[in-house]
Every structure is written in C-alpha cells, then in structure tokens.
Design brief:
The complex is a heterodimer.
Chain A (H helix, E strand, L loop, with lengths): L2 E12 L2 E11 L3 E6 L6 H8 L7 E8 L2 E3 L3 H4 L2 E4 L10 H11 L4 H14 L15 H15 L3 E5 L7 H16 L4 E5 L3 H7 L2 E6 L2 E4 L3
Parallel strand pairs in A: 3-8, 3-9, 6-7, 7-8
Antiparallel strand pairs in A: 1-2, 1-4, 4-5, 9-10
Helix pairs in contact in A: 3-4, 3-5, 4-5, 5-6
Chain B lengths: L3 H13 L3 H34 L5 H11 L4 H12 L14 H25 L3 H9 L4 H11 L1 H17 L2 H7 L9 H11 L2 H34 L1
Helix pairs in contact in B: 1-11, 2-5, 2-8, 3-5, 4-5, 4-9, 5-8, 5-9, 6-7, 8-11, 10-11
Classes of the chains: A alpha/beta, B mainly alpha.
Chain lengths: 219, 235
C-alpha cells in the first residue's frame, strides 16, 4: 500500500529568523505537487523536513499507510527519497551511483542489474553506465539523480529545484521523466520550482509558500 | 681527493652491481618504513575519521595539535623516545633501544600526525551533499559515514604516501634510537650521514640516488592520487 503524509504546524527558524510559521498540509494522493514561492521563503527547508532529513523547531510530519500512522524508522526512510539540487554524485561509475540505493537494500544481483539498467535507460544514460559520474554534464547529473531514485522506486519522492541551472534540452528531458513518473501513479512526487509554467505543466496541485505558510492554489 | 664525477660513477657502479651491503641497507629501510606506515595508518586513519565525524569538546584543539605535529622535529622525537626506552627509562624493561622496533616506533610517531591530519582534512572537505544524498537514498548514519570515507579515499591515500615519504627521509630519530648498527639498524639516511662523515662518498651517493628515486616515485604516486581527487572540484 502507498504512503501518504501529513505536515502539521511546522515551524522553523534560522539564526533567529522565522522561515516557516505553521505550515500544514495533507499529501494524500499520488501525483505531482509543485511548491512555489519567492527565494528564501523556505521551500527547500519544507522539503527537507518532509523528507525527514531535517527536524522542525515545532510541529511534526507523520506518515500513514492505510490511514494508520507508521513509525519513523529506517524502513520508512527507505520508502522516501529526496533529490537535492547538487545531486551529490558519488566519485564512481554512473552504474554504481544508480545501484547505490539498491545495494543498501540488499537487492539480489540479477534484480539489481535489471533495475539499475532500467532506471538508466529511462533517463537516457544507459550508454554511459561505465563512465565516471563526475564527468557528466550538469543536466546529465540531474538525470542521474532521478535515475538513482527511479531504481529504488520509493513511495514518496521529493525533488528540490530539479531543473535549476540546466540547459533547455535537459530541462525538457527531466520534465518528461517527471511526467512519466506522474503517469505511473505509483508515488507522491513533491517538487519545488520557480517556474510557474513548469508547475502548471507537470503538477496535479500547485502549492505556494508565502509568509512562512503553505497554501494550495488549485485545490 | 675524490672527484665528484668519480664518486658518482662508483655510486652508479654499486647500484648496477646490486652491492650486497647497499641492498641490505635498502631492504631494512623499506621494512622499517613500511611497518611504521602500516601501524601509523591503522591508528591514524580511524583517528582522522573520528575527529572528522564526531563533534566533541576539544575537537578543534586536537586537529590543530595534529597539524602542528605534522612538522614535529625528528631529533626531538628521537630524544624523548631515547629517554623512554633507555635502561633507566620507564619503558627500559622492554629492551627496545637500538633495535629496528625502536626505529619503527619513532617513524610511527612521526607519520601518525601527517596521516591523521590529512585523513581528517580529506573527510571534512567531502561535499556535505554527498552525505545528505546517501541518507536520502536510504543509508543509515554508519553507511553514510562509510560512503563519505570512500569519497575521501584519494585524500587519505595521499596522506599515507606523505607519511611514508616522511619516514623514508627521516634521519634524526632513527639515528638516536636505532644507534646505526651495521647490518641491524643501519638504514639509508643514517648510512648517508655516516659515510659522508667518513668521506666515503660512493656508498653515500649510491644511497642518496636510491632515496631520491624512491622519493620521486612516491611523489609521482602522491600527485596522481591528488589529481584524481581534485577532478571532483572542476568536473
């Protein structure tokens, strides 16, 4: 069964400055949620708190399965994934980057090979599987970040500015990958973006963070 | 009076002929330094890892101390070890003075801060996004730490090579605690110092050439590792 999650009255301050002031939202359906807002409004902070890699000063994030709250432990964390703006490419081959999450989950060798190669194929990087990942272009690295997530197939995927600082061609490719992920109806995808047109193209719901609070623009 | 060219020619002759005395000294030097490198690495790398990951009171002071000890004067290390290991010293009962073990101990002490400080620096300088990325892909804190250490592997290897370079080139400490006993504790650097004093330049020069070649080789490997690691920053 798929996961859902609820964010309740999240507050976060940095150096005494309030960034998030009571954000609440229920992410209950699979599909794409786009979070927009001005620079420094707390979009990335919100994403990181939802992805359980940062803790809020107050409020909480709860994950549910069959309407039952589930414990925040490693097994839950392995059903959630966040693609960071810098990706964090490991100094090894493209293939080993993509199979990293699978190896952590002790996936059998044959299945690991199939899933990693399928993920690479879906982002158009299969022909570069033995290349050192550090030699990829920014756009390719972004696609590699998506492939790493696709390979493990999490229930909730967070994408922090997935098309920031990449060229038009790669932006189009990344958007196509996200659209395909949405059409699979397998995961909740939460992405931040500055591009309103992109949000409208990709998202089922557009959310806005202003004044430290989050609200839906289209229901 | 030896001519420079004549000495140089004789030195090359000694090397070319695989002179047994020369080979014995080279092998002992390599054995002592390699053992010291192994022990120092086994202790210093975990130390560098812990000081990079764990936040505890006095961590900054320890790292500063390590960096200061990278330039530790070998004769001072030799002097302290001599006092400790001499018959009337607190560790005199071990009977280590004037043995290769004492030389290994001295070289280990000299290499430890270099390897620990460079390992620490290599780990601290890994992009924090790497650690976050590993966590977001499902790594536990321990698995994430292992991933970061793997990312720092070239920096850590560079530290080991720098440590080996230090032990190979060192003379003061091993001279004091080893005693420069022929066939037992006489290594390349101590032989060069002694043979130069005696005016026997052939053997000193031959060992100098070998030492330079080893040093050059180590530096080549060191730069190869450094370059491999630095590629991260500009690609």
């Amino acid at each position: 069964m798929k996961l859902t999650f609820r964010v309740m009255e999240i507050e976060k301050n940095y150096d005494g400055q309030s960034v998030l002031r009571g954000c609440s939202y229920f992410f209950e359906n699979t599909g794409v949620y786009a979070i927009m807002g001005p620079n420094g409004c707390g979009k990335s902070t919100f994403l990181r708190i939802c992805a359980l890699i940062e803790t809020p000063d107050s409020g909480k994030v709860s994950y549910f399965q069959n309407n039952e709250k589930i414990k925040t432990d490693t097994s839950l964390k392995r059903r959630i994934s966040l693609v960071l703006p810098g990706i964090g490419v490991f100094h090894t081959t493209v293939f080993k980057n993509v199979s990293y999450g699978l190896r952590l989950r002790r996936i059998q060798k044959d299945e690991l090979l199939n899933r990693a190669d399928a993920a690479l194929e879906s982002v158009g990087l299969l022909h570069k599987r033995q290349q050192n990942a550090l030699t990829l272009s920014s756009g390719e690295k972004q696609r590699l970040g998506l492939a790493r997530v696709l390979a493990i197939g999490p229930d909730v995927i967070f994408l922090d500015e997935p098309t920031a600082s990449i060229d038009v061609r790669n932006t189009e490719m990344v958007e196509n990958i996200i659209a395909k992920m949405r059409n699979d109806h397998r995961s909740i995808i939460v992405m931040t973006t500055h591009d309103q047109a992109q949000a409208e193209r990709l998202a089922d719901r557009v959310l806005m963070i202003t004044g430290g609070r989050i609200q839906g623009l289209n229901g | 009076m030896h001519s420079v060219w004549g000495s140089f020619k004789n030195a090359l002759f000694l090397i070319g002929n695989f002179d047994s005395e020369l080979l014995g000294i080279i092998i002992l030097s390599l054995e002592v330094s390699a053992t010291a490198l192994f022990i120092a690495s086994a202790l210093a790398i975990p130390f560098g890892v812990v000081t990079a990951f764990k936040h505890f009171y006095g961590r900054g002071f320890i790292v500063t101390l390590l960096q200061t000890f990278m330039g530790l004067p070998p004769v001072v290390v030799g002097l302290f070890l001599y006092i400790l290991l001499s018959r009337s010293g607190p560790l005199g009962f071990m009977g280590l003075l004037y043995t290769p073990s004492a030389m290994v101990l001295a070289q280990t002490i000299l290499a430890f801060p270099i390897i620990a400080a460079l390992s620490n620096s290599a780990i601290v300088n890994v992009d924090p996004v790497i650690r976050q990325a590993s966590i977001t892909l499902g790594a536990t804190p321990f698995q994430s730490a292992v991933t970061v250490v793997k990312e720092a592997r070239y920096g850590i290897l560079s530290g080991m090579i720098a440590g080996l370079g230090r032990t190979m080139a060192e003379v003061g400490a091993v001279l004091i605690v080893g005693g420069n006993i022929a066939g037992y504790t006489r290594v390349m650097t101590t032989t060069i110092a002694m043979e130069t004093d005696k005016g026997n330049f052939e053997l000193a020069l031959a060992l100098g050439i070998v030492l330079l070649c080893i040093s050059f080789l180590l530096n080549l490997v060191f730069h190869a590792f450094q370059n491999k690691g630095e590629k991260k920053s500009y690609l």
